[in-house]
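We emphasize that the prediction below concerns an isolated chain of 77 residues; any contacts that depend on oligomerization or on bound cofactors are therefore not represented. The input was used exactly as deposited, without trimming of termini.
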Amino acid sequence: MKFRAWHRGTREADYMIGGYFDAHHAGWDEAAMLWFEALIDEDDVDVMAWALGTAPAPERFHGPMLEALQRIDYVRI
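Result of the prediction step, given as a token string:
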């Protein structure tokens, strides 16, 4: 999952999705890992729009993990 999180195709998506993974994965249970695997199967442009709040995320992604993604406090530039 770490490789897929950090190799998205654009630097912006790498920082957002990879940074999220690095900051949070240590505390994930199996359900959280499944949530993240489903997230990284989505298009980067969609994930980034959900994180930035410029597009609504599908209901299946709603919850505390999406809220943590939307804080974007894990991106170190």
